[in-house]
Amino acid sequence: MQLKRTHYEIYWEILTYCRTPKSFTSIINRCNLNSKIGQAHLEFLKSRKFLLEVQQGDSTLLKATESAKEYIALFNKTYRELFDESPEFRL
Amino acid sequence: MTTTNTAQKLRRESNSLLGLSIINLVSSAMVLAFGASTLIPGILTMVQTQTVLLSELVFAILGLFAFIVGVRWIVATAEVLEIHEQLKEGSEKALDEDSLTSVIVGAMASYREKRGTIKAMLLISRIAGICFLILGIYTTINALITGGVSLWMIAGAIPNFAIAAAAFIIPHFFSKYQQIWDNRLKQTEKAEALLEKQLEA
Known about the structure:
With 91 residues, chain A is an alpha+beta fold. Chain A contains four helices and two strands; from the N terminus they run H-H-H-E-E-H.
């Protein structure tokens, strides 16, 4: 998904992907972000304590926290509701 | 609603969009074919005779216009088909909560991106509808004037009326589609307020 996403949607993608520890490069590749924007989003999520750094060997990975799980759950719930509760398109 | 129901809804919407896109594609191909069949013989005649009659020139311009409209219409349809692909891919593999949300997010993003294309397509379709309606009426009147009441000649206008009807029906369904997705986009704005609170907590 590299199309027009809101930053809430990008946060959700990052946090969902980081349920298990991930490197910076794999996050920006998976979420289709450029390094500069990716860095800004990750810094924001770290500042909000939604992501924390985990040391694994020589590399520093990022992992979603418990607060992130609440954000993910709320996001899933609201997006599912808005889709499920809206009329269906049929020919 | 369970994840299965959501996936089924995604699949049904994807199939409806595919159906609509196929009707759209056939109509645009007919417009393109009409354009080519009017433009090319007109140009060939003008080149061979080395003369330009006003009627030939008018038909050549009309043909060129139809050809351009047809090409633009086909391209727009192909772009809309990307939304169908997004929905189809997701509904086929989506099983858990995250995968389903991912499909919805992807479809939202595609729709935001293609919204302008859909709008342009509605306009193109309506213009084509008006043109083919005029052409159908012209063909019928011409047949009546030159050949009397010949069913065979009047039947020549049927394809024009058929394309005109399709070109008027297609925007009706795409408007419905647009209305539903615009409403969903509006709902995301409400959801964003909740998500913002969660981010600030």
